[in-house]
Amino acid sequence: MAVVKTGIEGMDSLFSEGGYPTGNSILVVGGPGAGKTIFAMQFLYEGATKYGENGIFVSLLEHPEKIRKHALKFGWDIEALGEEGKLTLIDAVTQRVKKTDIDTKVARRGLDMSHLLGILEQTVRDTGAKRVVVDAISALALSMSDVFEVRTEMLRLSLSLAEMGVTTLIISEAKRNDIGTSEFPVEAFLFDGIITLHLDSAAQKRRLAIRKMRGAKHTLGSYVVDLSEDGIRIIA
Description:
Layout: E1 3-4, E2 20-21, E3 25-30, H1 36-50, E4 55-59, H2 64-72, H3 78-83, E5 87-91, E6 104-106, H4 113-127, E7 131-135, H5 137-141, H6 147-164, E8 167-173, E9 193-200, E10 205-213, E11 223-228, E12 231-235
Parallel strand pairs: 3-8, 3-9, 4-5, 4-7, 5-6, 7-8
Antiparallel strand pairs: 1-2, 9-10, 10-11, 11-12
């Protein structure tokens, strides 16, 4: 089976084949401070620098400049990768960006799924990207009227990503601490995999668990997420 290595220390060994099944769309669920965005960006950074796989980061919550600055804290020069065409930031938040942001594409008509998918498909073709991150799908769900519409649009997203042939991490914000542990958001079962990240307030530790991964055997359990100046590592 073809796999995509995350490059995150301790993560790939949790899968029998040593990584995510190629082409899977994986929901990453967790609350604030759990490390979701860092976890997802590290997946793109490692892909671009270690495995020769270009990536795309779709930001629905933060301006790309803020994302770049945060990544630099871990020694990840996202701007340089953008200039090399290895990592593209799609800004789906702001209506305009500076002309110097040559590696940034803008979703000028807001958070409409059709427009967003159109930009994403074109960017995949232009860059040959193999990895995609969408941060965070919760922002799209806010613009939808009911649960049926959320499910329909999330299924549409999942099917479109599969057709593009990319391996995707889709971040979902949890409103409560039990979301992703004993309870899951409505979109959870529409994707190939579910990874939960949560902050254990009692132990003051971040933890990760693989709840589902279609097409791959994986270990069960809750693992400590160590966050250092170099990024994330998983302690099994």
